[in-house]
Design goal:
9-stranded mixed sheet, Rossmann fold, ligase, Luciferase, domain 3, alpha/beta, 8-stranded mixed sheet, globular, AMP-dep_synth/lig_dom, 25 strands, medium-chain fatty acid-CoA ligase activity, GMP Synthetase, Chain A, domain 3
Length: 523
């Protein structure tokens, strides 16, 4: 089955005989009393009922529906229900700062807001008159479970080029952008490309697939289409990244394929060293959003008993979907100097993506092997930024799209990302320096190097207890470019996006009182 209509996706999968069983770490927020085990027909029925309830609330074709809730896969189930009634779902992370959330709601101007009683207060200043709560009855709002689900309506069809869904970018360097995708860009160009059982990396019918993601973001909506099109035996879904909480579920259903956020891989890493670790059967790891540092790659590839496990690392953006892929192997991650090539993110997807590096000032191409601003061409490019047409147009360079990343297009066609342009400094890659520091500081959960507007870069070392041995730091920085004395923080001290990325601009302002080093022209 190939994905076509997100509003009827689960119905089509059920009709095709998909027998996948979904296991959750906690009940869905839209079905809190229905347990943690779901079949495809049961999920299809849930989407139909939810669509009927949204229609009963007053949601109409063409309406924008903002969805703000705790992290769970039912972000995508709600989105499919909204699509079914002809609306355009806009998925907003509950981890956004209240001011940022209100800004995005003001840009969005939704006809309806679907949220929880706790989050309603954060949204109230910019929320529409039609408010629907998931968890409890609240004065002035409708309660989803109390709405009439008996009047089911036929699915509303839309043009492949009409807006389908709205997601926001991570927001590492400022207020996130609202990215509008269509059925053509997200389903036909992105999901259909993945919905093939490729040898070695395609989903098999006997696979147990683990996904631990930020479900408000664009990757999982596309992932949902793919999984229902190439159904595995089981799917395990995690909403958090606490290893002790996840361990029992993963032991009960040890995965063969894992897709997780880079930050979640970091947080779950202690499980790799436990006796009979839950990753012992994994044949394929998948990561997107950001690079995974070499120590984490090594830990997971070593943890599995599979003879030749693969790690597939994708680089892309909300606006474009995946742009390049790279594969890591156990032998490669254990090789001397592996950390120096960790930022080489593979080659553009053949026949689908073109890439070039240009001078960020003149926009003229730079020779292969030299740093430049990375531009891409892809048919999967989104429709635009909602209410920010000028910002969208400013990132277009003729037929090319600016990623906002500084990187190197190598002679063999592969790409290395050095820094976001807004975070870049002459003669230094903050990202490569972070890789080297993490390799040399085993006690570090994460290292962040912030380019400064004046003076040397500021390193931030994140440890379990907020402490760092001065001697270990001195040894780790031997031979590196000049850095300031490190700021040592715990994981919870660091401002993060909904996908676990460090909000670099916010962290820089907190620690230095100034912004990042780059121009910010391409953000």
């Amino acid at each position: 089955m190939r994905p076509h209509d997100m509003g009827t996706l689960f119905d089509e999968a059920a009709a095709a005989g998909a027998r996948t069983v979904f296991h959750l770490d906690r009940p869905l927020d839209i079905a809190p009393d229905a347990g943690t085990r779901w079949s495809v027909p049961e999920l299809a029925a849930l989407v139909r009922v939810t669509a009927a309830r949204l229609a009963a609330a007053g949601v109409r074709p063409g309406d924008r529906v903002a969805i703000v809730k705790d992290n769970h896969w039912d972000y995508d189930l709600l989105a499919c229900a909204a699509v079914r009634v002809g609306a355009v779902p806009a998925l907003l992370s509950a981890r956004l700062e209240p001011e940022t959330l209100r800004t995005l709601l003001e840009r969005l101007r939704p006809a309806a807001l679907v949220t929880t009683s706790a989050l309603l207060d954060r949204c109230r200043a910019a929320s529409p008159p039609l408010r629907v709560t998931l968890d409890a009855e609240v004065p002035g709002a409708l309660h989803l479970a109390a709405l009439d689900a008996g009047r089911t309506r036929p699915p509303v069809r839309r043009s492949d080029d009409d807006p389908l869904v709205i997601h926001h970018t991570s927001g590492t360097t400022g207020v996130p952008k609202l990215v509008v995708h269509s059925t053509r860009t997200l389903v036909h160009k992105l999901a259909r490309f993945e919905a093939v059982r490729y040898p070695g990396i395609g989903i098999r019918r006997d696979d147990v697939l683990l996904n631990a993601s930020a479900y408000a973001h664009g990757r999982t909506f596309c992932w949902t289409a793919v999984i229902l099109s190439t159904p595995p035996a089981e799917v395990v879904l995690l909403t958090g990244d606490d290893p002790d909480t996840a361990d029992p579920l993963l032991r009960a259903h040890p995965p063969t394929v894992v897709e997780a956020l880079p930050a979640t891989y970091v947080r779950m890493r202690p499980l790799t060293t436990r006796l009979d670790n839950p990753f012992r059967r994994v044949r394929l790891y998948i990561s997107t959003y950001d690079a995974v540092h070499p120590p984490a790659l090594r830990a997971y590839l070593t943890a599995t008993r599979h003879r030749r496990p693969l790690w597939m690392q994708g680089w892309g953006q909300t606006e474009t979907g995946p742009l390049t892929f790279r594969f890591h192997t156990r032998r490669g991650t254990l090789a001397p100097g592996a950390e120096t090539t960790a930022r080489r993110l593979g080659r553009p997807v053949p026949g689908r993506t073109r890439l070039r590096a240009v001078d960020p000032d003149t926009l003229r191409p730079v020779p292969r092997g030299r740093p430049g601003l990375l531009l891409v061409r892809t048919a999967a490019l989104a429709l635009g930024y909602l209410t920010e047409d000028e910002r969208w147009d400013a990132k277009r360079v003729g037929d090319w799209w600016s990623t906002g990343d500084i990187g190197v297009h190598h002679r063999d066609g592969s790409v290395s990302v050095l820094d976001r342009e807004v975070d870049s400094m002459p003669g230094l890659s903050c990202l490569r320096t972070e890789d080297l520091l993490e390799e040399r500081l085993p006690q570090a959960l994460e290292c962040v190097v912030l380019g400064a507007t004046d003076g040397d870069p500021l390193p931030v070392v994140i440890t379990a207890d907020g402490r760092l041995d001065p001697g270990a730091w001195k040894e780790a920085t031997n031979g590196l470019p000049a850095l300031r004395e490190p700021a040592v923080l715990t994981w919870d001290d660091v401002p993060r996006t909904g996908t676990g990325k460090v909000r670099r601009a916010a962290l820089a302002r907190r620690l230095t009182g100034t912004g990042l080093a780059g121009t910010g022209r391409w953000t």
